Amino acid sequence: MSWRLAQPWWLLALALPALVLVLRLRRGGAGFGAYPIASLALARSRGPFLLRLLAATVLALLVVALARPQSGATVIDRDHTGRDLMLCIDLSLSMQVDDLGGSGPDADRLAAVFAAAKRFVERRPNDRFGLTFFANDALASCPLTADHATVIEFLERTEAMQRELWSDASRGEGQQGMLGDGTNLGLGIGAALKWVGAIPSQGRAIVLITDGRDSAQLPNWVDPVIAARHALAKQVRVHCVGVGNPRGTMTFRQADGRTHRVAVPTRLLPDPARLDEIANAGGGVALMADNDQALDRVIARLDEIEPTTRQVRQRDDYADHVTPWLIAAAVLAALLLVVEPRLRGVA
User: Mean pLDDT score of the chain, rounded to an integer?
Assistant: First the structure.
């Protein structure tokens, strides 16, 4: 809530009450010879000043009323046309490779991808997001929702669970991650499409994030090109993000526990040509990220490709408050008429 004057130029008229307050009018008796003697004999009275003060106050109140004081606010109406975006993230064993230049004990592809995914969600507050994860199998983890805190919580829980399973597998316990160690791209697209393709909206897309090559030898393998075409037929675009540094190195752990850096094998890198083919079939684009900074640039590029429409309208919602000033002026004017005879005196 704020205050303003709709016609502030009326405040220039405040010069009139100021003149009334400052100027002292000569009384009519000043023309008679005895008036100067009477002026000296009588004590000076504050009555004329109070009379002028009341008159000036009445005029000032009327001037403020003419300036139209108002209270209210400037209201900004925003129309947001959000998009439905399904993040389809690779959880294959190669996500443990640490070739993106990160630092820390968990500076691998998994950490980089999940951190970038959280930033992507946070920077698009008007979109709905969903999560699908894949490796050998696929899991639709989080349906489309505008509750971004929930999406980020799902990402954090999934990363923690995946690391715990990898840790167990390194000790010879459990399986290699939540969904296996392969890269079933087509199955991931199909699982994501079940969520995002069910409800029509103005903008729908699947963002496929992978760090490996398509595992066509899997018994449940789905051709990702066919899956992308099927998505496009439902007006859902498929964008591909390949994560991995073909010129980078990774930590290699020997049987005796010692580690050293080796070049990243080709089998642990995404296939750019294959991702281009999938993206073309899905009406999207294929982008590559070979380090943390490049991954952020990819996210920014996706913002440009899938923009969120915003329309902003501004309107003033103010109400006049003239009546209280007029009432105050009327009350003081009536008081002035009542007390004026009593306030006469020597000016």
Answer: 84
Domains and CATH numbers, the chain: 2-74+317-343 (no CATH), 83-307 (3.40.50.410)
Q: Which residue has the tokens 């309208």?
A: 313
Closest-CA residue to 148 (of 173, 129, 168, 171): 129
Which three-class secondary structure state does DSSP give residue 147? coil
**Hey, what are 146's tokens?**
């505008």
- Please tell me the distance from the alpha carbon of residue 208 to that of residue 192, in angstroms, as a whole number: 9
Confidence (pTM): 0.65
Q: Residue 15 half-sphere exposure, CB side, CA atoms within 13 Å?
A: 4
Q: Are 252 and 265 in contact (CB under 8 A)?
A: no
d(CA 224, CA 308) in angstroms, rounded, equals: 27
Tens digit of pLDDT for each residue in 84-133?
Answer: 899 999 999 989 998 887 666 678 899 999 999 999 999 888 888 999 99
